[in-house]
From TrEMBL:
GO cellular component assignments: endoplasmic reticulum; Golgi membrane
Keywords, ordered alphabetically: Membrane, Transmembrane, Transmembrane helix
Organism: Emiliania huxleyi (strain CCMP1516)
Topology of this chain in the membrane: Multi-pass membrane protein
Protein task: Involved in the retrieval of endoplasmic reticulum membrane proteins from the early Golgi compartment.
Cross-referenced InterPro entries: Rer1 (IPR004932)
Family classification: Belongs to the RER1 family.
Protein name: Protein RER1
Length: 182
């Protein structure tokens, strides 16, 4: 009987490892497709918000999701190597080599959080009655204090977590940098 328990735990471990591998394969396939990834992220978030709005409840789940999403947002806006602890890796002067911003966290983690919270809204066990305006005020206070700290960190180490495409440089008129039609 003890062997059966070990087999069951091993089977669950193998099933979890298989699921993790499959999940990672799909995430690797989705990585180059930026616009569809963001569209899926927005869709999942809107679906959750619409569900909570229509069923008018599950505020504790939404509050927990908000706190977790705020934690993920900080990781999403932070570089993979923190200049505060590992030294500056981002350019600090115009002569430094450019290294692109690498996020500590991709948006895939948001998907999982919103999907789990969405599934939890189907169980009345998680619908704990609370006075939601207090939770909302506390969340906004936490959000603004956290983002203030993160923005100060971004300003101090001079990094921007968003890129808007490849920079295009224009040469001077008389030096062959650009041709004009004559």
């Amino acid at each position: 009987m003890y062997d059966e328990v070990e087999l069951d735990e091993g089977g669950v471990g193998k099933m979890q490892a298989g699921f993790s591998r499959t999940w990672q394969i799909w995430m690797d396939k989705a990585a180059p497709h930026t616009a569809p990834r963001w569209a899926a992220t927005v869709f999942i978030m809107l679906a959750y918000c619409l569900r909570v709005y229509l069923i008018n409840g599950w505020y504790i789940i939404t509050y927990g999701l908000g706190i977790y999403a705020l934690n993920l947002l900080i990781g999403f806006l932070s570089p993979a190597t923190d200049p505060e602890t590992e030294g500056p890796t981002l350019p600090t002067s115009k002569d430094d080599e450019f290294r692109p911003f690498v996020r500590r966290l991709p948006e895939f983690k948001f998907w999982r959080a919103f999907c789990v919270a969405f599934c939890m809204t189907f169980f009345s066990l998680f619908n704990i009655p609370v006075f939601w305006p207090i939770l909302l005020m506390y969340f906004f206070a936490l959000f603004f204090l956290t983002m203030k700290r993160q923005i100060k960190h971004m300003i101090k180490y001079k990094y921007v977590p968003f890129s808007f495409g490849k920079a295009k440089y224009k040469g001077k008129e008389g030096e062959g940098g650009s041709r004009s039609a004559e």
